[in-house]
Each structure stands twice: as structure tokens, then as C-alpha cells.
Amino acid sequence: MAGIVVIFDFDKTIIDMDSDNWVVDELGANDLFNQLLSTMPWNSLMDRMMKELHAQGKTIEDIEEVLKRVPIHPRIVPAIKSAYALGCDLRVVSDANVFFIETILKHLEIRDCFSEINTNPGYVDEEGRLQILPYVDFQTSPHGCSLCPPNMCKGLIVERIQASMAKEGKKRIIYLGDGIGDFCPSLKLREGDFVMPRKDFPAWNLIKENKTLVKADVHEWTDGEELEHILLQLINAITIEESQLLSVECKFHTMSKASHGPFPRPLPVPY
């Protein structure tokens, strides 16, 4: 099973909400958020909102408590634990931020299931305010992808993961996501990989409209129960396929060795 890398988006994939919207709504800052929405990139807006919430007296503990009650389908955590138990390498690629994601995953007791979290940095400064930074500094080093938001190209992250897989001997990717930003990484997947877009969400619509550009097999899902069923079904199918290939290779080597017969005895050395 070490040959399978499962990549999860976070918002509306692992959790059933957008974590940014959830925190802003629950802490009563939705009106200000909507006023500023058209004035700056989303990632920069979230940093600004954390500054505003801090100025209003909201604490890191307040944010953590909100994050701990974010809606999640009851079958998501078992699906993640099962994939991990089967030996898959699980990773997150998300346009949320590391503070939100790690707070939720730790609360759900599944943080250790993931070998890597690729997302926007976030840290609590000396004043107790959460600062959120872009994954890519688009002012000085733009990523150059027209499909993705300025702060993050998930396609470039998937390409880096693919390069590391080649060194580690891992072969297959299963990618799960829902948003516009999940379309670009879907285009980076290869034949033999799988993409699982959430049905009737932006990534699913874009994949449907551009079928010829997607090399991976597409398996849509609607909720956590269907996600669990399809994900574990795909892992099982890959396991059977790899076992059969290994069996064929072993038989081939056995037959090849047998066809050569025993090694000839060496001739005596003349004196």
C-alpha cells in the first residue's frame, strides 16, 4: 500500500464548510467581510479579518473553539483512518491556513494520519493575533498559473509531490477536492491516477467541461458516506491490481530461471 498517495483538499472535502467563512460568520464579522471582499485577494482578506477580530477582543481561544465545532460528515474521519491503516500516504493540499487545519485535525484526532500539510502559513504573533500569510509571495515571486489564485497553485504542489514519489517508489495518486483551485492539480494527474471531485461543485463542473484534458479516472462523490465508499473501493482495486502484477512478475522470474536450467559444472583446470 505504500505505493498510494491520497491528497485531500480541506474545505468542503474533509470538513463540510469553508473554514474561513465559518470562523468569520461564527465570530460575527460577516458584514465587514462582505464589505472588504471585492477590495483584496481572499488570502489577504482573511489576514485582515484576523486583525479586525483581534481588535474587537476576539482571542485565539475563541477562534479555536469555533473551529472545533465546524460541521463534518460522520464518515469522513473513519474514511481517513481506514486509508491510513491500509498504508496509504495521506497529504493535505488546501487554500485554507495551517492554524485552522491543524486545530481541526488535532481536535478530530487525525492529525497524525497526514504526512504533509500544504497550505497558507499562519502563526500567532506576540500580541496574540493570528497572522495569515500567502503560500506564495505573489508580489515578488508569482507562480504564473492563470487557473489558480495568486497565493497558491495546487498544480505546482502536486508536481512537487509527483517528483518526490518517483524517488520514494510510490506510483499512484488519488486526489479529492471540490473547488476551482482543485481543477489545476487534476490536470497534473497521470493515467493510472484517480481524481474524486465533489459532485455539483466547481471542480466537478470544470472537469466535466474539459474531459479530454484530464488523464486520471474520474469518480465523483456527494457526501462523506460516498467519499468513504469510493475511496476505499479505489484503494482496494489498486491493491488487487498491484498484487496481480507482482504475482505475474514473480512467475516470470521463476520461469526464466527454470528455463536456463542448473548452472553447468566448471571444467577441471589442467595442470
Automatic annotation (TrEMBL):
The keyword NAD does not apply. Mg(2+) binds at D9, D11, D178. InterPro entries: HAD-like_sf (IPR036412), HAD_hydro_PyrdxlP_Pase-like (IPR006384), HAD_sf (IPR023214), Pase_PHOSPHO-typ (IPR016965). GO terms for molecular function: metal ion binding; phosphatase activity. Substrate binds at D20, D95. SUPFAM superfamilies: HAD-like. The active site is at D9, D11. Keywords: Hydrolase, Magnesium, Metal-binding. The keyword Glycosyltransferase does not apply. Its cofactor is Mg(2+). PANTHER family: LP01149P, PHOSPHATASE, ORPHAN 1, 2. NCBIfam families: DKMTPPase-SF, HAD-SF-IB. This is Inorganic pyrophosphatase 1-like. It comes from Nicotiana sylvestris (Wood tobacco). The gene is LOC104217419.
